[in-house]
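task queued by scheduler; priority normal; single chain, no ligands, no partner chains; default sampling; output format set to structure tokens
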Amino acid sequence: MSLPFLTGGAAAQSIDYGSLEALFGEPVTTSATGSPQRSTEVPVDMTIISAEDIKRSGAHDLPTLLGRVPGIDVLNWSTYGADIGVRGYNQPMSPRLLVLVNGRQVYLDHYGYTAWSTIPVQLSEIRQIEVVKGPNAALFGFNAVSGVVNIITFNPRYDDVDGGSVSASSRNGSEASLTHTFRPASAIAARISAGASRADEWDNTLGSRAAGYRAEVSKATVNVDTVWTVSEKTEVRFETSLSNSQTNDMISLFEAVPSKYLTSSVKLGLTSDTKIGVISAVAYRNALKHNVFLVHANGSYDNVITHVGVQDLFKIGAKHTIRLGLEARNNELTTSPIAGGKVSYDVVSASAMWNWAVRDSFSVSAAVRNDTLSLKREGSFAPGFPLASNANWDRDISKVSYNLGAVWRVSDRDSLRLMAARGAQLPSLVELGGLQLRVPYPGFSVAFMGNPFLEPTVVDNLELSYDRTFDSGKLGVRVFSQKSEAIKGQPSSTALFQMPTLTSLPAVSWQNVADSEMTGFELSASGRLGQAFHWNADVTATDVTDEAYPGVALPAQKADFSRMTPKTRGNVGLGWAGGKWTVDTFLHYTGDFTSYTPSSYVVVEVPAHTTLAANVSYDLGSNMTIAASGQNLVGGKQVQTSGFKVPATVFVTLSKRW
């Protein structure tokens, strides 16, 4: 009934990845089914970015790395501000992506987006990044509606990672990082990492439309990861982190504003191989203080999420793997900019996964998850705000997600996958009532507020993929279709949520405004030329069609995704290694799309653009490397979004391992 000591899913990933990589000859994952698999064998569409890929990338942040994955869209707003989408539907503060570090959610739960500068890990301590496309909530957890970014760091029990780096860059930039692994006792291994950086912000090409523009940006993080091997079959893992980031953001209303983030986390996990399977239990607490400097008022959000979960992974015979899970989470947010209220919810989630190895060349899997959310509100309301009764927030939301997959290894070189999935994007606390803002207009005021009646967005996805390996390369083809129901639109003064009365103000809020369909295909290829060169190329095409609800003008509510999504994006990479040198170049193309000018909200066309990045490194000996890298090296200041123009940035980095 029990498995070897390894765990699947996002709850705990305490396995010896190095040994598994040596066994398979390439990076592997256990995230989808609990068993070690190549990315082409899992019942989901997964791309693995390895530690070697990261080392040769020349990237200094996660969005730069992720933007080179087929089908990924990146909106670069500022030095540290970026939003990532999967095959379209990207927007400021994009809320459709689940981001995890060793199973802990690191996207910000008050609005459901990821502030990438707050993620408290150094690139040098990342074992691999798993990018999973499509809805995957049943396999990976809460809110994974367009995809998952699953960041797995080196495990101090198995991996002794020690090193540091210092960098200088254009725009007076500087950064430093340090990682150290040690053993305070024979059964305890720990790693501490820290990093800090600062730079002059990109030029303010928006002028007065960038309210409170921050001319200098900075970030600092620290992370501690400790593993206690209680016995051969039982392990305890403790992680804690802090981050401080001061940056310029583009918020969902298309306002360019300065932000300050303070985050902290504590996580405790237990994994034990028992007679009834591998039992994993985890508890963590994320705390956020987010100060955002709006035009009409300064917002200060205090958000705390507490999560506990347990799962059992076991086998029935040799062919059937089962995973059962139960989770509970509490999420609380104080109202802002007008204080006095608190919006919260409790979520109870039950999940199950079954993987059947029908034969060596064919397997099927099924996963299902139910999330039940209980919403509530307490405290006071701002004068004149409608719906001024906490009873309006007494509401339950229940949604089912699923993932179905079949993998057929047609031959030693060919494999086919058919995948069907459904995911539910539950409303965030800001959307449900965390926002309380009174905006004055000549002769009257408007209440900007949350909507306690907002419905989840449900995403259905169907995908067929084909992969073929060659002696010196591989080829991938994907075709997919996706439907989203109850897409959310942004607050707009042209679309009132509540009409004015004798005692209450007119109000605007987030509303469900449309259904949407997307179809597309993805082609990718990679390989080697001799021993020195490697290459990769991909193109992803998508076509989005929106169906607005009666009376809704999608551009006014910034939900016109058929025009906001580029139809084409692609990558070309070429690398060379010889002696002590490595040289890598990266081209990325994004087709034209529609966006909105900050503050004025004028519809603008963002032209198609190509970016060039490069990295050249030299081994100095004594485990020291010097590297020169650059990003956005084509055409000077480039229009990539409706925000600041993106300048070229050049880095020189000295790193050492010991």
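post-processing summary
- The two ends are 42 Å apart (CA to CA).
- Residues 1-13 have pLDDT under 50 and may be disordered.
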